[in-house]
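Rotation project, supervised by the postdoc (A.L.). Task for the rotation student: set up a whole-complex structure prediction and record inputs and outputs verbatim in this book. Inputs entered:
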Amino acid sequence: MSTELLNEISENLQRGKAKVVKELVQKAVDEGLDPDVILREGLLSGMDVIGEKFKANEVYVPEVLIAARAMNMGVGVLKPLLAEAGVKAAGKVCIGTVQGDLHDIGKNLVKLMLEGKGLEVVDLGTDVSPDTFVQTAIDQNCQIIACSALLTTTMGVMEEVVKKAEAAGIRDKVKIMVGGAPVDDAFCKKIGADAYTPDAASAADKAVEFCLELAGKSA
Amino acid sequence: MTNRERAMNLLHYKPVDRIPAVHFGYWGELLTEWADQGKIPRELAEGNWDGSEKDVALDKLIGWDFNWNHCSGSSNGLSPAFEWKELEVLPDGSRRILNGNGIIERHKPGITSIPSEDDYLLKDREAFETLFRPKMKFFPERVNVEYYKHFNETRSWDVPIGIHLGSVLGSIRDMTSVVGMSYLIYDEDEDLFADIVDTWADMQYECAKTILETGAKFDFAHYWEDICFKNGPLISPELFDELCGKHYKKRCDLCHEYGIDVISLDCDGVVGQLLPTWYENGVNTMFPIEVGVWGDQFEPARKKFGPGMLGVGAMDKTALRKDKAAVDKEIERMKRLVSLGGFIPCPDHRLMPGTKFELVQYYAEEIKKIRI
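Outputs recorded:
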């Protein structure tokens, strides 16, 4: 019965049925299912499917956005219960669009995918200075700084983020990920960032990989 | 030969004396930069738009022959547009502004690029029926019929001029933001989004028809969409085809009736997945084919659709920020594309800040030397 209900949550999430997902999550809670299990095997597994389909061009931005909206509705029900149970996120990422750039569609998609992997995300918004990225990572113990840019004229700020992180002495504790229209792997390597990913779903996969790697290091 | 003849001959696989030097305009910041550097007179940096007198004056200074985006159209936006209104000033000095399309934008001091979109008005059926549908209606004043009656006497016959056909989906995205469009597609009222697209498209069609009925002569027709990004289309190709295909066909068929057989479409990003819908419904000219920033290409489209698929663009504009060697490399690549026929080289989008004035002059001079 619980497997059936979790599958139903996942399937409705994939179809973006936010209200239904909220009701089903509440039903699962009422039936006594572990909130962490509902989160992982219902909501996050649904977002995983969407992420894979997005990478394969089987679904597009609208389907990701409505699925994420459904996930957030479900998470809203679970949040207080997860906090009460002391369930911690798999990692923490601070994300933003770099200084001088106000474009946030790509950044928001990555944020949704990161949340869909169970990571905690500190959204710094747009026009974020290198200092803010680095200081936030220090203050909030983020394992990852994720920088987005749409413009060729602003992508250079990412190099500043890398330099500031080095100057602050956090380079061994924090991975820096870059993405956005003009960014590619060669640029990522040139500026000394840790990873470029071509799409939001791949970014989330990479972020999870980094969090596991860093957790292994600190363990 | 006139530049008009050169362009239209190239797109019809006919002989030309030389390749025209074609461009797609500039970022405003670049013109200011060039004025600051003393490369161009300050007055040419302000109020300069595609095909304007200032654009043409700048063409002469640089060595361009014409701007492909030089089109003539109608008042085919929301009418009346929403009144621009400052809604709020945030602590960091940002201003939240309601724009003419019903989008609430956030403008930040010191940042001149496209503002971010905070919210939007077109959220449900009620907003559509009360706020938007009345602004999407066709009415005769949308077209300056008197102007078009005399168009053939006043237009330049040296350069090609297109009739602007508006958009099918891009303008709606401008009214909803990508997020809002996504929600509208899937929210409870299943017919709403299609109704919005149909209402908008019908008005665009009437505008084009009214212009063409005046007898005004155009060399090509031109759509604007901007509905793709780095990884392809913003919505699924199947849904795009279902919602938009018939509207492209209707306007393209209209153009064919008036003898216009070159129909181009301006869409940024990687457009390959939407090409079948466009091509099968009459759009036959890709523009601007963003090679540099997004990695798009013309050759695969030509290979897939054959000689009927034409192209304007595909020159990596980022080379114009580098050096002569980078420009020479692009010119070599343009030679190969020109040799395919049915193709006109053009920078793959508006020239951006950091573009070197002398390199643009050099490119414009060298591209004219290509012979078929």
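Student's summary: The longest strand of chain A covers residues 92-97.
Supervisor addendum: Residues 148 and 158 of chain A are 8 Å apart (CA to CA).
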